[in-house]
Input
Amino acid sequence: MKSKRYIVDTTLRDGEQSAGIVFTIEEKVRLAKLMDQCGIYQIEAGIPAVGRVEKEAISRIMASKKRARISAWNRLSTEDIRHSMECSPDIIHIGVPVSYVQIYTKLKKNKRWLENELLRCVDMASSAGFDVTVGFEDASRADISFMTNLIKRLEAYRVLYIRFADTVGVLTPGRTADSVKNILEYTDMDMEIHVHNDLGMAVANSLEAAKSGAFYVDCTLNGIGERAGNCDFQKFVAVGERLFDFGIDKAASMELLREFSSILKMEMME
Amino acid sequence: MIRLLDRTLSTLDYGNEAITGNALSELASLLSKAGADWIEIPLEAYCLMGAIPEGVKAVLRIRHSREAEDYPGFDYYISKSKEAYEAKPLINEIQVNDVKEIELLKRYQNLKHVCITGLDDLILSSYSNEMKRILSIFGKNVWFCPEDHYHCATALAVEWLARGGRNAGVSFMGRGGYAAFEEVILAARIALRQKVSVDLTLLPRIQELLSRLSSVRVAPNKAVLGSRIFTVESGVHADGLIKNPTIYEPYPPQSVGKERRIVLGKHSGRVAIKVKARERGIELDDQMAMMLLEKVRAMSIEKKRGVTEDEFGSLLMEVALNEV
Output
């Protein structure tokens, strides 16, 4: 029997972040419904802090979903998390930059500040009764021991799983496997892999992460996403199904992809 | 030291009138300058080219090993023939479609130069061990040319080169179902610290030339080559890029002949709004920037696309005039 792995679709969040792509509320709700029907485990529905329209879309997705778990994406900010709580998602996801270039140059903070702020944000969401996942941004350029220490602190806060994000798309399959195995060896946390396709290796890196023990794999429809995009759902499932059970219904996923192609009338599809 | 055999010329349709000897020679030269150590040239192409372009190390694709005698001057000859041929440096190309067949390759151990093509399914296996097995059978000088049915050819070529293999077969944009030349070169530079001195600013020229010779369509988000891979809208990313491009870029756009562009839309943030206004000579305080950001997001959602420069100019004027 094939071992189980779970697809996390981030088309409506990271996919929509690609320049020029905008989904209407109705489109988001329709796509989420089809994702739910085809067996996608988790749908990252958007970023509530973007504003009223985004919040309405996420709330309507929550109201109409059946099986999928709906997550809302947040920066490391209590204000962002308040916006998310208004949408009552199943999961509040908190993105935290973990590479030194991101901590010291982008945030202009230090590791101690980051750790305290993260625990404050996680505690806020968790205390309010939400399931919480944490995304390690730029993890592929971060210090593994710093990440494992952070995870050990997060274990006490009932975080469901950690997203290991190859934010700039520089992983190779070998490095992906090493990173995932290292973290799993030193912590008790489940892992999610989130990769970008800058070097054309998103499918291979995701597969290698799943082979190394990551239970959750992030994908987008048609592989849309920042720069060269994310791991392409259709390609990943086609290859990965030879090793894993994703619980994806083929007929429903074909309908989802047809609907997506008809919605995305932009340069990307030409 | 890694070495790439580029097979792009072997993937062209030679019935196409646009293919001329000069264009093929230019393509071969550009690919060499961009990091291909050898260019595979099929006989049809060589007949049109008349000669090997200066500075290009070439491998002639032939049908039978004896054909090599008729075309002197190549570094290697490559053929699907399984027979040894001592008179010329012949690469015997062996198609392997299943990882289980690797064990059977021992029967070709006597061949001097071998190119293993295929093995898409390596990615599903413990590829590190299988690659070691291939290297132990043929030695480090064996070529590996992974195919792309499982969308992992680039990854396999890179892993091959990272794990002791010296020679890999590729093609521009992965034409013909191989690993993509431009992706493997970039990965070699970034992940393996190899190919650091080749000129990758030539990639757009190669792409343009190839599009004249064949029906090439490049997706806007195609890795390395896509027209939109350095176009940024997201507020978080734009903010990071303004502070330090290495925060969100795996390599500088200029290194592959491209430029970064920050555009505005639903996912923009305050910092990008301020920067775009400053480009037009207007300094915005935080409150004005937030006001303008709301207008930009509303327009993007309403129009279901990004906001153009002209539209941003109009919105900026509205906000600026309201303040006066």
